[in-house]
TrEMBL record:
Keywords: Membrane, Transmembrane, Transmembrane helix. The chain crosses the membrane at residues 6-29, 49-66, 78-96, 132-150. It comes from the Bacteria. This is DUF2214 family protein. The keyword Transmembrane helix applies. It holds the Pfam family DUF2214. InterPro entries: DUF2214_membrane.
């Protein structure tokens, strides 16, 4: 149905751009020294990132099955699968930052003089940048697949 397709498309766009915004926020917040408050904020943002990523999967699968084009349009299309692999890669890349934020938050709560080790901070920044590259790839694949490329 056209209304279902429209609603799924609207929610999908809002979710994916929120996910991208959260990665950008995390990237900005991990610049320079981190206060305990900043670490707490990062852990909170990252929790929302995880929830939104789950919703992206649910709504994305909804678009495949309830979208106007029908599931056959996507499952035989390699650009769609390239988009899925990129999405999975972004998910895997986000594991290390999530684990670091949780660990820093735990340590900062237990010890007021805790400072984030520089090597851990720069590795988290590396993973966040790699996630951004993944998002750019997803956007390229999304635009191509929506226009029928990939057969
Ligand atoms: C962060 C992850 C994602 C981003 C940034 C993203 C981005 C986009 C964008 C921008 C479009 C619109 C393309 C256009 O009309 O030009 C789109 C469409 C779509 N996406 Fe995603 N997406 C993501 C994840 C997913 C996932 C996980 C799924 C499925 C499980 C999915 C399924 C779809 C479908 C079915 C369409 C409709 C394409 C069409 O109109 O034929 N997306 N996506």
């Amino acid at each position: 149905m056209e209304t279902t397709d429209l609603l799924l498309a609207i929610v999908h766009h809002i979710l994916v751009f929120s996910v991208a915004a959260l990665i950008a926020c995390e990237s900005v917040l991990t610049r320079g020294e981190l206060s305990a408050a900043a670490i707490k904020r990062l852990a909170g943002l990252d929790r929302h990132y995880g929830i939104l990523a789950m919703l992206v999967i649910i709504v994305g699968v909804g678009r495949v099955f309830y979208g106007l084009k029908g599931w056959e349009f996507y499952v035989y299309n390699w650009v769609f699968w390239a988009k899925m692999v990129s999405f999975l890669a972004v998910g895997l890349l986000s594991i290390i930052p999530t684990m670091r934020f949780l660990s820093w938050n735990r340590q900062a709560s237990a010890n007021a003089s805790f400072t984030v080790p520089a090597a851990e901070l720069s590795s988290v920044r590396f993973y966040l940048r790699a996630e951004m590259v993944g998002i750019v790839l997803i956007l390229i694949f999304a635009a191509a697949m929506a226009r029928g490329y990939g057969y």
